[in-house]
Each structure stands twice: as structure tokens, then as C-alpha cells.
Specification:
- The protein has 317 residues and is α/β, with parallel strands linked by helices.
- Helices cover 46% and strands 18% of the residues.
- The chain starts with 8 loop residues before the first helix and ends in an 11-residue tail after the last helix.
């Protein structure tokens, strides 16, 4: 017969915090307790388990081999405990609580202003915490339980991530009026590389999709022209206006251009679209909150984009 462990949830929370910060004082501050309090609880937990969870001789402290296994299980315990409140909220039919969202930079400027306004009106008891992040960071933080849900381009081909497509948007080309292909309504890849092609910085999945759409060598693109690392679609548009060349922008961005700038839009010959989805891990328990978020996000999307299909979805990486 196995013995019953006298382990508290607060000890497990302290354990997870110490793993995240790898420093007793920083972990204590994150838990809003004193450092002696946190250290004492970690020591009591180690005494109860009969093993050392952290190697204190290293700076920063690191988990022992058995410590890593127990920390992983502690995360599962805390996650499952939180499900109790989620079950109660669903049972009561209420939509409330905290929701931490990670969103990629090429979606955030267009979606978030609408989303914040609409969700605060429709669900005043929901508290949103939004972080603008690259796709790789969104995935990592979802798996580490630092995010509830992500809004990112898919498919990701990650079995641990659930993808719920919300909309599909086309790619648009934005050309300076002096670009050699300006007179064409549907420039091809050869047309685009006949002048400067400005792209987002590395790490943006939209850059990867743009490179494939334009059939250019990414390394060549970085060395042939002025190397400018930008994470902003709006910045690229301004550069094209002032310096010439072309860039690739998402359809939603093209809809928000001024009438003057819309004259510089062209349609690529390729018919690819990018798929934007809500993504979350299979352990996600806030089902009703997720359903509500999905509907509000969809209500924010312009109608021309909602009418697109996912027949030719571009790869993300």
C-alpha cells in the first residue's frame, strides 16, 4: 500500500515558480511571499518526498533529474486543479475569468483594437492579458502553461497543439509607383525581384510565407540590399513609399490602407492564403471561454476576408 504524501498545492506552486525563475528571491517575489517562506516550503517538500529537487550549489539553481520529473507532474496537478473552477463556470453558464493570449505581430495591429473593445462589452467579467509574440514563443509558452491560447498562422504540424481556424486571408503586393512591375495587375515572382523586395525580420512566419510566395532566396535577399530588420507591416509600407521596391502584406492590412496607398496594391499570381487560428494545448480546460473568444474574434474579421476559403493554405515554416 502506497503512503499518502502530505503535499500542498501552495508548495507545488512555489516549486513551479522556482523552476521558472531559478532564483529563490525572484521566485518568492513572483509568489508574493518572503524568500525564507518560499525556501522553507521547498525544504519541507523535499523532506516529505525524501529527495533533493534542486541543486543549490549551482547558480542559477537547477532541478535535479528527479526534480524535473516531479516539477512536470506538479504542473499537471495545478492544471487539473484549475479545471474544477472551469467546470463550475461552465455548469453555471457564466463566461468569466482570466485569459492570457499570445498573438503574432502580423495579426495583432488589425485584430486587437476590435477584439479588446468587443470582448469587454460582451463579456465584462473576462480579464484579457495579451502578449505580442513570435509563433515559436507562442507555442513554447502554451506548452509551459504561461499562455491559455494563441492566435497565430497555421498549420503548425505539432501534435500537442490544437488548431481552430478562424479565417483565411489573401496576400497582397504593395509596390512603389516607380517599380518596374507597377503597370501589372498580377506581378509574378520574377517581376518582384527586379527591384528591392522588403521583408519582415527573421522569426516572423509571414516572412517565410512571403519568401515562398515570391520564390526568392532568403539569404540572397538579406545580402543584396540594405539589411533592415522590421517586425512592422506599416513600417515596410512607408519604406516602399520612400525608398522604392515592393513588399508583401496581409489582406487585412491592405483593407486599412488610405485611398492613395490602395492604388499601389497588386494581386500576386499565386492563389495562396494564410490560415489564422486559435491554438491551444490539448490540456486546455476553459472550453466555454474559448468558444466565446472564437465567436468574438470571428465577429471582428472584415467580411471580404471571412468569405475566403482555405483551399490553398500557405505553409508557416
Amino acid at each position: 500500500m502506497s503512503r499518502f504524501l502530505n503535499v500542498s498545492l501552495i508548495q507545488l506552486e512555489y516549486l513551479i515558480a522556482l523552476d521558472e525563475h531559478r532564483h529563490f528571491i525572484k521566485a518568492a517575489e513572483a509568489c508574493f511571499v518572503t524568500q525564507p517562506t518560499l525556501s522553507m516550503q521547498i525544504k519541507k517538500l523535499e523532506d516529505e518526498l525524501g529527495v533533493k529537487l534542486f541543486d543549490r550549489s549551482r547558480q542559477p539553481v537547477i532541478p535535479t533529474d528527479v526534480g524535473r520529473l516531479i516539477i512536470a507532474q506538479a504542473r499537471n496537478v495545478i492544471r487539473e486543479t484549475q479545471r474544477i473552477d472551469n467546470i463550475l463556470q461552465d455548469y453555471k453558464g457564466t463566461v468569466s475569468g482570466d485569459l492570457t493570449i499570445g498573438i503574432i505581430p502580423t495579426v495583432s495591429p488589425y485584430l486587437m483594437p476590435h477584439l479588446i473593445s468587443r470582448i469587454s462589452k460582451a463579456y465584462p467579467d473576462v480579464r484579457l492579458h495579451v502578449k505580442e509574440l513570435m509563433t515559436d514563443d507562442v507555442i513554447r509558452l502554451l506548452k509551459d502553461d504561461h499562455l491559455d491560447v494563441g492566435i497565430a498562422a497555421t498549420p503548425l504540424n505539432d501534435e500537442s497543439i490544437v488548431e481552430r481556424p478562424v479565417y483565411y486571408e489573401k496576400f497582397s503586393l504593395y509596390l512603389n509607383e516607380n517599380h518596374p512591375a507597377y503597370g501589372k495587375q498580377s506581378p509574378d515572382a520574377n517581376d518582384l525581384v527586379s527591384d528591392k523586395l522588403w521583408l519582415l525580420s527573421e522569426g516572423n512566419c509571414f516572412r517565410y510565407q512571403s519568401v515562398n510566395l515570391c520564390s526568392v532566396n532568403d539569404q540572397k535577399q538579406r545580402t543584396d540590399y540594405f539589411d533592415y530588420e522590421s517586425g512592422s507591416i506599416d513600417t515596410l509600407i512607408k519604406i516602399v513609399n520612400l525608398e522604392g521596391g515592393a513588399t508583401v502584406i496581409p489582406e487585412w492590412a491592405s483593407l486599412e490602407l488610405s485611398p492613395e496607398n490602395k492604388r499601389n496594391l497588386r494581386t500576386p499570381q499565386e492563389e495562396e492564403t494564410r490560415e489564422i487560428s486559435l491554438i491551444y494545448t490539448r490540456n486546455f480546460a476553459k472550453a466555454k471561454l474559448l468558444d466565446s473568444l472564437f465567436e468574438v474574434v470571428k465577429s471582428c474579421v472584415p467580411e471580404p476576408i471571412l468569405n475566403n476559403t482555405g483551399e490553398h493554405v500557405a505553409r508557416v515554416m
